[in-house]
Specification:
305 residues, eight-stranded mixed beta sheet, alpha/beta, AB_hydrolase, 11 helices, Alpha/beta fold hydrolase
């Protein structure tokens, strides 16, 4: 696993596809390792002429963790936020956006397409808002502007996201993770037990680190909304959202698209808060078409021969 030293920490990453093709940086969500990306989606993007870069966010997977800061007190942070007071966190989404830019720097990529999923969608909003010259296009998947007043997620989905397994036993961790994936997943495309178990076990065995989830949640709470920043984004923007998302309802995605000048909003029937196999080819085609349309003619890759 290659490691890049950026922004004062180590970031674990992978690349897929032809290094001469335009780069798309994929940014994952809350507590999600790079292995949470559906391999079919990544492979399809590469097949559409994109070099795909995935990575572990800080406090996740094989990247630097912030265990020395201690566990997050989420109930206390929620109470603090409800009282209108600032939430204390070891880092913010701003730091995580800088990690993404730092990884592009380490890879020698001057300008890239960026795609973020859920919390990753928040991070790419910050990258596109602050680093116009570095972003060819932006795709925001199942995310939000964090504007106050947007519809909340379903209580059972939020509870499942923030609840820990009943024990540290591997079997219980896998059971809990499978239950979570079913609760937040796409109701029209439920995974089979065997494929879901294999997917979950792969991620649990790579690294199970729930402490990082709490601190990343603090980072979201400490970072506020991006309403004003979204209005300044100049990169061509595609917003993709599942019609059945139980964590971030579709109005959250609609809000992002309404705030970014010229953004397109694609609502996907039957899709929840995941990337099911059945939708990966279609979603990759949408993203790739958006990326290639955003490349100026003089920067288009030349055809071989």
């Amino acid at each position: 696993m290659p490691i890049a030293h950026v922004n004062g920490i180590d970031i674990a990453y992978e690349t897929t596809g032809n290094p001469d093709h335009p780069t798309i940086l994929l940014v994952m969500g809350l507590g999600a390792q790079l292995t949470l990306w559906n391999e079919r989606f990544v492979t399809a993007l590469a097949g559409h002429g994109l070099r795909v870069v995935t990575y572990d966010n800080r406090d996740t997977g094989l990247s630097t963790d912030f265990g020395s800061w201690g566990p997050a007190d989420l109930p206390g942070a929620i109470a603090t936020a409800a009282a209108g007071k600032p939430v204390t966190a070891p880092y913010t989404l701003t730091d995580m956006a800088r990690d993404g830019i730092g990884l592009l720097d380490a890879l020698g990529v001057a300008k890239a397409h960026i795609l973020g999923l859920s919390m990753g969608g928040m991070i790419v909003q910050l990258i596109a808002g602050w680093h116009h010259a570095r972003v060819t296009s932006m795709t925001v998947v199942m995310s939000t502007s964090s504007r106050r007043g947007l519809p909340p997620g379903k209580p059972e989905a939020m509870k499942a996201l923030l609840t820990r397994p009943q024990s540290g036993d591997r079997a219980e961790i896998v059971r809990h993770a499978m239950a979570l994936r079913r609760i937040i997943g796409s109701p029209a495309y439920p995974p089979g037990d065997a494929s879901l178990r294999a997917f979950v076990e792969k991620n649990v065995d790579r690294r199970y680190y729930p402490e990082g989830i709490g601190r990343q949640y603090l980072a979201i709470m400490a970072s506020g909304d991006r309403v004003d920043l979204l209005k300044t984004i100049t990169a061509p923007t595609l917003v993709i959202h599942g019609a059945e998302d139980p964590l971030l309802p579709p109005d959250c995605g609609r809000d992002v698209a309404a705030l970014v000048p010229g953004a397109r909003f694609d609502l996907i029937p039957g899709m929840g808060h995941d990337l099911p196999d059945e939708l990966c080819d279609d979603l990759a085609a949408r993203v790739a078409a958006h990326c290639h349309a955003a490349i100026p003619p003089l920067e288009q890759p030349r055809a071989a021969g």
